[in-house]
Design brief:
three-stranded antiparallel beta sheet; ten-stranded mixed beta sheet; 23 strands; alpha+beta
C-alpha cells in the first residue's frame, strides 16, 4: 500500500416495523441511499425547499446479520493489521440507533456478538496460522466521559486507580494516553475477560429514546507486535486497531434529558460537533491547520483520522419517518468522511538486541575476511582483537622510552595500536602533571586564589598579608615581598605551635558551632547525657527511643488491634508490608538463594571469560605452530632413525599447546559444574518466589476481603487453616456458578464450538460481579 486512499463509509439501518419505504430507498448496487421528503404546503406556492438527497457510500447494510456486518466492514482491516498496518473502525450515529450493538453486540448470546469480540477472535485465529512469527497481543480500554479520560480496566486488582489524571501525549511515534493501562493477553479467553471487565464499568443512562444509552465515548485498542522466528532480521512490525464506540448525538426535545443526563448530552453533542469540524477540515485539501485539540475525542483519534491507518466508518441510522432529520445529519457526516484520505503504511521497527547480535556476526565475518587479506599480503600474526593488559603495558613502555630518547621510532601494526599509542601519550602526560603537582605540594602550601574561605583562614594563620600576597612571593624584580607572621620572628616563642591544617580545621569548627547540627548535638546531649564524641546517627536513635519510651509510659499498655482500611491497599504496597511481617522468613530465604545464584552466575561468567581467553591463546599457538611447520617443510625435513627432527621453538609451542588444552579442559569442567549449580539454585529461587507469592495472595485475601467476624475461624489453632478457605466461598453466592456454566456449555457449544472462550470469560466476569455485590451487601449489613 503506502499510497493515499479514501476512508470507507458504510451505513447500517436499524430494523423496525415502521420503516419509511416512501422516504428511504436503496440503489440497485446496494451502495446508494436516497432520501425523499414531501414539500410543506404551508410555505405557499413559491417553495424552494429541498426534498431529495442521494448519498453514495461503500455499502448499505439493511436487515444485515452480525456476521455479514463483520465480513463487510472489519475483516480486511483486522487481517491487514497483522501485516503491520494500523486500523480504526468507528461507529457513529444518533442515540439508540444501534452503535453499541454493532460494535460490542449482545454478550448474552454468542451469535449476536459484535465487531469487537469478533476482531479479537480473528486476531488469535490468525496468530495460530502464523507459527513462523512470535506475535504478542496487548489491549487497553479508554473512556472519555464529560471531557475526562478514564481507564475502564483500572478496577483490576493488579492495576488500581491512577493517582495522577490521564493525559494525551504526542511524540514522533504518534499519540498515546499517559496513565492508561495496557494488558498483555496470551489467549482469547483473557482478552474477552478484559473486554467484559471494561463493559461493566461503562457509564450508561436511560431516556425516552434508549433505555441503555452510552454516556461516553469508548476506545478499545488492540496492540500487536510480530517478530520473525525463522529470520535473524532485526526488523519487526507493530500495529494497533482502534475500535471506537461513539456516544450518540441527541436532540434534547426528543430524548427529554434532565439533570446529570442533560449535562452528559451537552458534552456528547459538543465533542461530536468538534469531530465533524475536524472531518470537514481533513476533507478540504486547502486547509493547513486541522483542529484536533478542540476536544479529547479528536485529540485521542488524531492518528486514526488523518494518519497512516485504514479507517472505516459505520453510520447507524433509524429507518423511521420520525427520525428522518437526524438520519439526514448522520448521512451527511458519512459523506464528508468519505472525502478524508489516509496513507496506510507498514510500521517497521528495529530490535536493538537482535541488531547487536547481527552486528557481532558481521564483525566476526569481517575479521575472517581481514585475516584472509593479511595472509595473501604476507602479513602474518596480525591481531585485531582488543588489546589486553600486557599489550597495553608494552605500548606504555615504548612511549616512555620514545620520550626519554632511548627508542627512535614506534613500529605501526594496525589502527587499534595507533589509537592506544596516542592514549598512552595522554596517560604519561597526566602522570607527569600529577608528579609535578605532588612535588610542589610537598614543598609548598598551594592555595586557590578564588577560594575566599581558605584565604581568610590563611590570613588568620599569618601566612598571607593584608593585601593578599604570600610570604616570599616574587614581585618580578627578584625579591620576596610580604610580612612574616609574628610567630616566626626570632626570639619570640609561640605558646602553641599549630600547623596550617590544624588552624584551618579549628576555624571551620568555630564557624560551624552555630549550625543546626551542632545545636541538635547539644540538645540531645543534655537530654540523654551523651558524650560529645557520639555520632549524629546514634544521637538521633537515642532521641527517638527516648520519645518512644516517654510515649509508651504515658499511655496504658494495651495491644491495639489494627483497624481494617475501608478500601484494601494496592498489592505493591501490601506486598512490601507482607515481606516485612508475615513473609519475612520466606523473603529472607529468597534473598539468600538469590544472592547465591548471583554469585554462581558471576563465577560462571568469570570462568567463561577465562575459557575464551585460553581458546584465543590456543588459536594463536596453533597458527604459530602451523607457521613453523610450513617453514620447516619449505626448508626441508630432517629425520633420524625414522623420527622427525624439529627445532626448539616448535617443540616449545607443542608443549604450550598441550598445557593450554589441559587448562581448557579443566576450566570447561568447572563451568559445567557451575552451570549445574546455577540450574539448581534457579530452581530453588523459583520455588521461593512461588511460595512467597502464594503466601502473599492468601494473606492479602484473608486480611482485606474476609469479613472480620470470620477472621476468628482462620486464626492459628482453629479448625480452618490459612489458605483452605477460598474467598469466593466465604459467603453464599446463590446458584453454583460451575453448575450454571456446565449447563450453558451443554446447550450452546453444540451450535458454536468456538464460543468456549467467549462464555468462559462471561462466566468469570459474572462471578466477580456477584461476589462484589454480595460483599458490598454484607458490609452494609455490618454497618447497620
Amino acid at each position: 500500500m503506502g499510497t493515499r486512499k479514501k476512508v470507507h463509509a458504510f451505513v447500517r439501518v436499524k430494523p423496525t416495523d415502521d420503516f419509511a419505504h416512501e422516504m428511504i430507498t436503496y440503489g440497485d448496487d446496494n451502495k446508494t441511499i436516497d432520501i425523499h421528503l414531501k414539500k410543506d404546503t404551508r410555505r405557499g406556492v413559491v417553495n424552494n425547499q429541498q426534498t431529495d438527497w442521494s448519498f453514495k457510500l461503500d455499502g448499505v447494510l439493511h436487515d444485515a446479520s452480525q456476521d455479514l456486518v463483520y465480513e463487510t466492514v472489519a475483516k480486511d482491516v483486522v487481517s491487514q493489521a497483522l501485516d503491520g498496518y494500523n486500523g480504526t473502525i468507528m461507529c457513529y450515529g444518533q442515540t439508540g440507533a444501534g452503535k453499541t450493538y454493532t460494535m460490542t453486540g449482545a454478550t448474552e448470546n454468542y451469535k449476536h456478538r459484535g465487531i469487537l469480540p469478533r476482531a479479537l477472535q480473528q486476531v488469535f485465529r490468525m496468530i495460530e496460522e502464523r507459527p513462523t512469527h512470535a506475535i504478542t497481543v496487548r489491549v487497553s480500554y479508554l473512556e472519555i466521559y464529560n471531557e475526562s479520560l478514564f481507564d475502564l480496566l483500572s478496577t483490576l486488582p493488579y492495576v488500581g486507580p491512577s493517582v495522577t489524571p490521564m493525559t494525551i501525549v504526542e511524540n514522533p511515534q504518534g499519540v498515546f494516553i499517559k496513565g492508561l493501562s495496557v494488558h498483555l493477553t496470551s489467549q482469547e479467553e483473557d482478552a474477552f475477560s478484559l473486554l467484559f471487565e471494561g463493559e461493566t464499568n461503562r457509564i450508561i443512562a436511560s431516556h425516552t429514546m434508549n433505555k441503555s444509552s452510552s454516556r461516553s465515548h469508548c476506545i478499545f485498542t488492540i496492540y500487536m507486535e510480530a517478530h520473525s522466528r525463522t529470520l535473524s532480521n532485526e526488523k519487526y512490525i507493530t500495529s494497533k486497531i482502534n475500535l471506537v464506540d461513539l456516544a450518540g448525538s441527541e436532540r434534547l426535545g426528543k430524548s427529554g434529558s434532565e439533570g446529570r443526563v442533560l449535562k452528559e448530552a451537552t458534552y456528547i453533542n459538543k465533542s461530536l460537533s468538534f469531530l465533524e469540524q475536524a472531518i470537514i477540515a481533513l476533507g478540504d485539501q486547502k486547509r493547513d491547520h486541522i483542529p484536533f485539540r478542540q476536544c479529547k475525542l479528536t485529540h485521542a483519534l488524531k492518528d486514526s483520522l488523518g494518519g497512516n491507518c485504514n479507517l472505516v466508518l459505520v453510520t447507524n441510522i433509524y429507518g423511521e419517518a420520525a427520525q428522518l432529520e437526524e438520519t439526514l445529519s448522520s448521512l451527511r457526516f458519512a459523506s464528508r468522511m468519505k472525502l478524508v484520505t489516509t496513507e496506510p503504511a507498514i510500521n517497521e521497527k528495529y530490535d536493538a538486541e537482535r541488531m547487536v547480535k547481527n552486528l557481532e556476526k558481521e564483525l566476526a565475518l569481517l575479521k575472517q575476511e581481514l585475516a584472509i587479506h593479511d595472509s595473501l599480503a604476507n602479513r602474518t600474526l596480525v591481531n585485531y582483537d582488543p588489546m589486553d593488559e600486557i599489550q597495553i603495558a608494552e605500548i606504555n613502555s615504548q612511549v616512555r622510552r620514545y620520550l626519554e630518547g632511548t627508542l627512535d621510532e614506534i613500529d605501526i601494526i594496525n589502527l587499534r595500536q595507533i589509537q592506544e599509542v596516542f592514549n598512552q601519550f595522554r596517560v604519561v602526560l597526566r602522570q607527569q602533571e600529577q608528579e609535578v603537582e605532588s612535588s610542589l605540594r610537598r614543598k609548598y602550601t598551594l592555595v586557590d586564589k578564588n577560594d575566599f574561605a581558605t584565604i581568610s583562614a590563611v590570613q588568620k594563620a599569618g601566612l598571607i598579608d593584608v593585601d593578599g600576597h604570600l610570604v616570599g612571593e616574587p614581585d618580578g624584580q627578584g625579591f620576596g615581598l610580604g610580612v612574616a607572621p609574628f610567630s616566626t620572628k626570632p626570639g619570640k616563642k609561640s605558646k602553641s605551635k599549630k600547623t596550617f591544617k590544624e588552624q584551618f580545621s579549628s576555624s571551620a569548627r568555630k564557624e560551624g558551632a552555630s549550625s543546626p547540627v551542632s545545636k541538635e548535638l547539644e540538645v540531645s546531649a543534655s537530654k540523654s547525657q551523651l558524650t560529645p564524641s557520639s555520632k549524629d546517627g546514634d544521637v538521633k536513635d537515642m532521641l527517638l527511643r527516648d520519645r518512644e519510651t516517654s510515649n509508651t509510659s504515658d499511655s496504658p499498655k494495651e495491644e491495639l488491634r489494627p483497624l481494617r482500611p475501608s478500601t484494601p491497599p494496592s498489592k505493591p504496597v501490601a506486598f512490601e508490608d507482607f515481606k516485612n511481617e508475615r513473609g519475612s522468613e520466606i523473603n529472607r530465604i529468597f534473598k539468600e538463594n538469590k544472592s547465591i545464584l548471583n554469585e554462581r552466575r558471576k563465577k560462571a561468567s568469570e570462568t567463561t571469560h577465562r575459557i575464551n581467553a585460553i581458546k584465543r591463546e590456543i588459536d594463536v599457538t596453533k597458527e604459530a605452530l602451523n607457521f613453523q611447520k610450513s617453514l620447516r617443510e619449505k626448508q626441508g625435513e630432517y629425520e633420524n632413525k625414522g623420527l622427525m627432527i624439529i627445532d626448539e621453538e616448535e617443540f616449545l609451542l607443542i608443549l604450550k599447546l598441550k598445557d593450554l588444552k589441559k587448562q581448557y579442559r579443566t576450566e570447561y569442567q568447572d563451568l559445567r559444574d557451575l552451570r549445574a549449580e546455577i540450574q539448581y539454585c534457579q530452581h530453588l529461587v523459583d520455588q521461593c518466589r512461588h511460595r512467597l507469592l502464594t503466601e502473599f495472595d492468601i494473606w492479602y485475601n484473608e486480611s482485606f476481603f474476609v469479613p472480620e467476624d470470620l477472621q476468628v475461624a482462620v486464626k492459628p489453632g482453629c479448625s480452618i487453616r490459612p489458605g483452605m478457605m477460598p474467598v469466593s466461598r466465604i459467603v453464599s453466592l446463590g446458584e453454583d456458578d460451575q453448575d450454571k456454566f456446565n449447563q450453558l456449555q451443554q446447550t450452546v457449544l453444540p451450535e458454536g464450538p468456538d464460543s468456549i472462550s467467549f462464555y468462559n470469560a462471561k462466566v468469570k466476569t459474572e462471578q466477580k460481579q456477584n461476589y462484589l455485590k454480595t460483599m458490598m451487601g454484607f458490609q452494609q449489613t455490618q454497618r447497620k
